[in-house]
């Protein structure tokens, strides 16, 4: 029987001072990690911003895609890759 790992979520949001921050939280909404990105918004999120986000993704996790929220932030659900394999 395979065990299921709880998914975690990741959001990238621009702060009022213009900096971009990443936040990772678990299914119970507990913040696991957060901090500023060195990305300044140049080149668009999908073309350049992801280069700065990828190092924040916890080891063993991956994403299917990013959703653009109404407030201009980006959110993805991260799933454990290969969890439960024999």
Total E-strand runs = 6
Please report which band the strand proportion falls in: under 5%, 5-15%, 15-25%, 25-35%, 35-45% or over 45%.
Answer: 35-45%
Overall shape? globular
Helical run tally: 1
What is the alpha-carbon Rg in Å? 14 Å
Q: Output mean pLDDT.
A: 88
What string, H for helix and E for strand, traces the elements in order? EEEHEEE
Main beta sheet:
6 strands, antiparallel
Q: State the secondary-structure class.
A: mainly beta
Oligomerization: single chain
Uncertain residue segments: none
Helix percentage range: 10-25%
How far apart the termini lie comes to 9 Å
Helices and strands in order, then pairings?
Layout: E1 8-14, E2 20-25, E3 31-36, H1 45-53, E4 61-63, E5 67-68, E6 74-80
Q: What's the short version?
A:
With 86 residues, the protein is mainly beta. The chain is built from one helix and six strands, in the order βββαβββ. The radius of gyration is 14 Å and the shape is globular.
């Amino acid at each position: 029987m395979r065990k299921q790992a709880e998914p975690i979520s990741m959001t990238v949001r621009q702060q009022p001072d213009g900096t971009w921050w990443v936040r990772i939280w678990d299914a119970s909404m507990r913040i696991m990690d957060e901090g500023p990105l060195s990305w300044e918004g140049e080149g668009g999120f999908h073309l350049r911003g992801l280069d700065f986000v990828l190092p924040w993704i916890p080891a063993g996790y991956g994403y299917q895609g990013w959703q653009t929220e109404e407030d201009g932030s980006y959110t993805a659900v991260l799933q454990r890759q290969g969890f439960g394999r024999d």
